[in-house]
Amino acid sequence: MPLLLCMAEPSLLTAVRQGLERLGQAAAAKIWRLGFAARFFVAILLNSGTALRRFRLIIREIYFAGVQSLVIILVSGLFVGMVLGLQGYDTLQRYGSSEALGVLVALSLVRELGPVIAGLLFASRAGSAITAEIGLMKATEQIAAMEMMAVDPIARVVAPRFWAGVISMPLLAALFSAMGIFGGYLVGVQLIGVDEGSFWSQMQSSVDVREDILNGVIKSLVFGVAVSWIAVFEGYDAPPTAEGVSGATTRTVVTSSLAILALDFVLTALMFTGGNGK
Amino acid sequence: MASVPIVEIDKVSFGYDAARPVLHGVSLRIEPGSVVGIMGQSGCGKTTLLRIIAGWLKASAGATRVLGESVHELDSEGIYALRRKMGMLFQFGALFTDMTVFDNVAFQMREHTDLPPDLVHDLVMMKLEAVGLRGAAQRMPSELSGGMARRVALARAVALDPRLMLYDEPFTGLDPISLGVIARLIRTLNDSLGQTSIVVSHDVEECFGIVDYVYFVSAGRIVAEGKPDAMRRSGEAFVKQFVRGETDGPIPFHYPAPGYEADLAAAAVHG
Amino acid sequence: MKRSTIDIWVGVFVAIGFGGLLFLALKVGNLASFSTAEAYQLQAKFANIGGLKVRAAIKSAGVVVGRVSNVTFDNESYEAIVTFNVDAQYKFPRDTSAKILTSGLLGEQYVGLEAGGDGVMLKQGDRLRLTQSAVVLENLISQFLFNKAAEGKDTKDGK
Fold first, then answer.
1. Is C28 within 8 Å of A106 when comparing Cβ atoms?
2. Strand ranges across the sheet with B20-30
3. How many domains does chain A have?
4. Residues forming beta bridges with residue B63, ordered by sequence position
5. Looking at beta carbons, which residues of chain B come within 8 Å of A144?
6. CA distance A166 to chain C (A)
7. What is the tens place of the pLDDT at every residue in B100-136?
8. B233 burial via Cβ count (<10 Å: 0-12, 13-18, 19+)
9. Strands B86-89 and B164-168
10. Residue ranges per domain, chain B?
11. Residue to test with chain B: of A138, A140, A148, A157, most B Cβ within 10 A
């Protein structure tokens, strides 16, 4: 019967085979790229000496990656916190425990929303800018010129941007959480009228510095590494054309967002299921 | 000329992949102090040749000796060390867009030397003065015209007084005045700083005006060489076509294609 | 001049970033309250700890005096051993009793300490002898139903 099928539909078989071939090639290309990205990551780490010695290079990039993301992070944090205050109050007051609002707002922000949303915003604000900048430097032969001047572009261009991202991200996430808690406080205490004392004291007794805050900081640090790595890699790997750079910029945002969400799941599973989650 | 050549290329071949070779057994010698032109059509392999000299691409066969070093045998550190003695002017300047003109020119001094800021400042001003753009030191590259950007890039390329200068299409996209300025600068910098220069170009008039010797490259081979005056009078078919810009000659106007009638007939069938 | 403005901004950014972290640690979290103070360790056995978790509060007269550091199961007595740290500034007599209590109807569980009258104080490594287990809601309900049923039977019998 299968033999008969083969004879009857040779074109179908070829189509299937071609499809499989294309799938295999696409998968192989992805894996090749992943390997290349991993090697690039090692190259960044090995060539970080210059950047870390000449910290001014990193400071400059922190300005572009961190300082310029500040407004969007603070404003978003405030609004997310205010929404959490409203929604949380609405749910909690049904169970008569609206004074736990502080706990709810603080824990959701410090553990999850702070690192994740700050990471997503950072990817689309700073990550895309880094990719576009490096990609354009490549397209306009600035990277080549640097190599011609015997200056390693990975040490001089890529590593400072990478480290700036890694340094900025936890600070931005902390600011996002802090701003969000302030937003929750504004809505919960000032607007709705939850008792201020229990808002803060319940928060303090339930939020643990090591379990919650430190883990949140670790998360944001991991996201910072991931986003910065993806951004510099996509920029450095971008085809030196207009559509190449724009495609790379889009890929940075998409890949970093997926990476953040996937890593968040893995990290949450590792951190908070140790039997002492609340 | 019995002196040791600055660049000596012996039977170099290169291909980005095996199926499409770009260079076939190219040999050339460049004497110290000279300005040498490498001319040919776009895509003939002359930029590839330049990149092999700069240690950017590794030739698949043959020997490349630059400033006494065998480029094809160097590791990346050796190539970086060699490049400190070279300068390169890119087609569109390739200035660092996030730095001022001053910082662009100072870039190599700051990266490779520990010169005190005062001295760097003076050196940068000297280089900018040489290209006539001292007044533009605090401008950003985006505020410069194409010709000015090219001059700044030239100042940047000669910042550390390289012994060998490589020019990749230095005349492309410039107005006639800027073009003349760049051409004169290439010659004067070469002579006053005691450099050796290689100019890759397809701009016949400007190139012939400044070079001592020309190589013509076509389809990955050197097809003619000689002094510019001799080339002007050359009877060689390719050189004649190239120098005079004729449509008809060894380089056909038409890209290789199947028979015209066959193509038209095919269209009719599909239509 | 352009450089120094960048430096200022980055300085401000890093400063408020660390300010944010500090705010989280001190105002939101509990770094200020316990981590640095010295503590002594006590143990207590419970027949049932209900939903008591590590890091749950130890309260006496409503004041948080310590935290649960470990919960294990004793293979011999088939009971739970709760280890907890009490802040060194709080002293309790040797006959202090421990109860597992719940804050509010559905709140989290904590260990309540009720001081006794003994003159000797508890010290590092001591074990509390008087304990009262957690109230398990299911047991409470079944007890209630059982009582109700018994009551019904009584009234029937009385008739």
1. yes
2. B20-30, B7-17, B61-66, B69-70
3. 1
4. B10
5. 56, 90, 94
6. 13
7. 888 888 888 888 888 888 888 898 888 888 888 888 8
8. exposed
9. parallel
10. 7-227
11. A148
Residues of A in contact with B153 (CB under 8 A): 145
Contacts of B234 (CB under 8 A, 6+ apart): B224, B226, B240, B243
Question: Which chain A residues have a beta carbon less than 8 Å from that of C9?
Answer: 63, 67
CB contact under 8 A, A148 and B86: yes
- Integer-rounded Cα Rg, in Å, for chain C is 24
A120: domain range?
55-268
Give the CATH H-level superfamily of domain B7-227: P-loop containing nucleotide triphosphate hydrolases (3.40.50.300)
B152, amino acid identity: V
| A1 belongs to a structural domain | no
Reported residue count of chain C is: 159
SS (H, E, C) chain B: CCCCCCEEEEEEEEEEECCEEEEEEEEEEECCCCEEEEEECCCCCHHHHHHHHCCCCCCCEEEEEECCEEHHHCCHHHHHHHHCCEEEECCCCCCCCCCCHHHHHHHHHHHHCCCCHHHHHHHHHHHHHHCCCHHHCCCCHHHCCHHHHHHHHHHHHCCCCCCEEEEECCCCCCCHHHHHHHHHHHHHHHHHCCCEEEEEECCHHHHHHHCCEEEEEECCEEEEEECHHHHHHCCCHHHHHHHHCCCCCCCCCCCCCCCHHHHHHHHHHHC
Prediction pTM value = 0.78
**Partners of B196 in the β-ladder:** B164
C72 in contact with A at a CB cutoff of 8 Å?
A: no
Residue A38 belongs to some domain of the structure: no
In a domain, A40, yes or no: no
Any chains having at least 3 CB pairs less than 8 A from chain B are A
Please tell me the distance from the alpha carbon of residue B215 to that of residue B9, in angstroms, as a whole number: 13
For residue A146, give how far its alpha carbon lies from the nearest alpha carbon of chain B (Å).
9
The answer to whether the Cβ–Cβ distance between B83 and A145 falls below 8 Å is no
Q: What angle do CA A156, A161, A167 make, to 5 degrees?
A: 130
For chain A positions 134-193, those within 8 Å of chain C (CB to CB) are 168, 170-172, 174-175, 177-179, 181
pLDDT of residue C1: 43
Distances (CA, A) of A179 to A110, B136, C100: 11, 45, 36
Mean pLDDT by 10 residues, chain A (278 residues): 54 88 90 90 89 86 91 95 93 84 91 94 94 92 88 90 94 95 93 86 82 91 95 92 92 95 93 56
**Length of chain B measured in residues:** 271
Q: How far is A74 from chain B (nearest CA, A)?
A: 27
The structure tokens listed for A122 are 């950072």
Q: Check the CA dihedral A50-A52-A56-A61 and report its sign.
A: positive
Chains that touch A (3 or more CB pairs under 8 A): B, C
Task: Determine the residue of chain A that is closest to B162 in CA distance.
Answer: A149
